[in-house]
Each structure stands twice: as structure tokens, then as C-alpha cells.
Specification:
Length: about 210
């Protein structure tokens, strides 16, 4: 059974409940964007247990942290009480006004959806980000074989049911196709060491362009 057929919320509640007692652990991928982050209102989607939120707090920044999982939100409320939180399902219309944010952070949360739904999410992000604002993201790379790339049951091109749920793996063309909906894309390959095995990701910075 894929996550299309099961309650995605329940899946992530169970996942986060298993790890909620662990110490928050972040890497430094946001370092290069600190000037951008210091100059505006920040939203994080798919915040999980609060790794990036912890980083922002330690750098004197605040955000609205959102996640589908109630468990994740409660964990942040307990550990990082200065962070504003809201439970949000990004697969639906987001509860924010047009042009609400200067920066949206989307770390490892935009690679779970079909092509159709991914495009709809990108349009929503474009709606809520100010013109010339930024979307900062990381997504699974097609080279991320340690975490399921090219494995399991193919649902669409580069989209698989693997390790118990649906996962999309991006190449350069995919990044441009999807994130280009929001604006001008800059991307680079990167490696994360947060997990037991190294994780290959694509790091993305999009400058929102309301004209495109």
C-alpha cells in the first residue's frame, strides 16, 4: 500500500514519535543564505522535529514553522517555544495570504508527491512568496541510492513507492521543470550526513518571479 492510499498524517506522526526524544541535529546548509534570511519574514514548510528551526533560533531568527504532523508541531512547541507553529497540509491550499513571505524554507519535504500535485504545490508557494523573495529547498537526488533512488515500484518517472512510502528523486531537468514554476532556479548537488548513511540531495535557491 502506498502513501496515496493510507493516511499520510498518521504515517508521519508515527515516524516523528519514534524520534522525538532525540537531540535536534542540523547541518550548515543555510549558512550561505543568512543574509537572505535576515532580511524578511520566514516560513518553513515540512519543518519536522525542528532541525532548521533550531538553527534559526541560534542565529537570532524566527519563523513560522509548519508541518502536517501534530507530533512534529508539539515537539517544536516544547523544545523551541519562541518559534511560531501551525499545522499545515501543503498538498492543499495553504492558509496564508498572497505575498506573505520573503523566504520559504522547504527542506526534504517536496519530494513525496505526484507530478500533478508537485506542480500545484509550486504554484501555491509562488502565490505566498513575495516577488523577488526566495524559496530555499533540498530534495532527493537521483543519485541517492542509499535512500531508495531507482528502487521499489515506479509510479512515475523518478517517482517510486520505496521504503514504505512514495519518494520522488530529482535530476537537474526535474528541478528546473518543477521549481521553475516559482521563478529563477539555482541548484547544486550536495551530500548530507545527518543520517546513518550519506544522503545525496539537490540544494535549490529560487528567486520568485511573478511574471513567469
Amino acid at each position: 500500500m502506498s502513501t496515496i492510499d493510507r493516511n499520510f498524517n498518521e504515517y508521519w506522526d508515527e515516524n516523528f514519535a519514534k524520534h522525538s526524544q532525540k537531540e535536534l541535529k542540523y547541518d550548515l546548509w543555510l549558512d550561505k543564505y543568512l543574509q537572505i534570511l535576515k532580511n524578511g519574514k520566514i516560513l518553513e514548510i515540512g519543518c519536522g522535529l525542528g532541525n532548521n528551526a533550531q538553527y534559526l533560533v541560534e542565529h537570532g531568527l524566527t519563523e513560522i514553522a509548519t508541518d502536517l504532523s501534530e507530533v512534529a508541531i508539539k515537539n517544536i512547541q516544547e523544545k523551541l517555544p519562541t518559534i511560531k507553529t501551525k499545522q499545515v497540509d501543503i498538498s492543499k491550499k495553504m492558509p496564508f495570504k498572497d505575498n506573505s513571505f520573503d523566504v520559504v524554507i522547504a527542506d526534504l519535504c517536496l519530494h513525496y508527491f505526484s507530478e500533478e500535485l508537485t506542480k500545484k504545490i509550486m504554484l501555491e508557494l509562488k502565490r505566498i512568496i513575495k516577488n523577488k523573495g526566495h524559496l530555499l529547498a533540498r530534495v532527493n537526488s537521483v543519485y541517492d541510492t542509499n535512500h531508495g533512488a531507482g528502487q521499489g515500484k515506479m509510479l512515475e518517472n523518478n517517482f517510486y513507492f520505496v521504503e514504505g512510502y512514495n519518494k520522488r528523486f530529482f535530476d537537474e531537468k526535474d528541478v528546473n521543470k518543477f521549481f521553475g514554476i516559482v521563478g529563477k532556479v539555482e541548484q547544486s548537488n550536495s551530500k548530507m550526513m545527518r543520517y546513518e548513511k550519506a544522503k545525496e540531495v539537490i540544494e535549490i535557491c529560487v528567486t520568485c518571479d511573478k511574471q513567469c
